[in-house]
Amino acid sequence: MAELRFTRSLYDEGAVRRAVEAFGALAKLELTEHPHELLVLIRDPHPRYAAVLEDELANYALTATVQNRAKGAA
Amino acid sequence: MNDVPETVELPYALAEREVQLTLDEEVYPRDAVLGCAYLFVDRCYVFLTRPGDKQLGVRLRAKGEANEAALEALAGEFANELLNQVLRFRIGESSRRLREYTFAKAFFSQPARTSIDALLAELDAEDLAEDPLEIQVPWQKTAGAENG
What we know:
The structure holds two protein chains of two kinds.
Chain A (H helix, E strand, L loop, with lengths): L1 E6 L5 H10 L5 E6 L3 E7 L6 H24 L1
Antiparallel strand pairs in A: 1-3, 2-3
Chain B lengths: L11 E4 L2 E7 L5 H11 L3 E6 L5 E8 L5 H27 L1 H13 L6 H11 L13 H9 L1
Antiparallel strand pairs in B: 1-2, 2-4, 3-4
Helix pairs in contact in B: 1-2
């Protein structure tokens, strides 16, 4: 089981949720809210994508965060 | 007097397939770091952490095999782009008031009269009966009078 801890002051919550939704078909993902972070637990990943799933999910969340911030600033 | 400018250390640590940088948020604002990280997501896996107060951690993990030299080069390129993003951020901040003022003036000031309206008003104001320069007289008449 892998876990990703997204710091709230760096990652947008909506972006992390979108990432979890987008990768939900490739593993059992559980999002838990904490005061300063969002914890994503990754279980039973698809064998083909297990090696990169965690990193790809993190990249997705980062990209969505920056895009959300850009929309908010516009 | 010391002429050498103060340098800012950008410490990084190498590990297998990844390099980790720790940034001082006072020097590298969060938005600049996010902007820089965004530009690197197609080249590597980027993960941001907050290792301490006013500190930002950046982990760059290679998408494939990468030796030490490649990871150091990646860290160097990230640092260069980070400087670029910080500069853009600071210029944006310093010119924000001027930009807001310009936009506010453009959007909320009294609409200027169009040039067509101004010309029509000018024509209305003129007394067309007066023609001291004899513009309304055909040129043949004026030319004939001068010659004959």
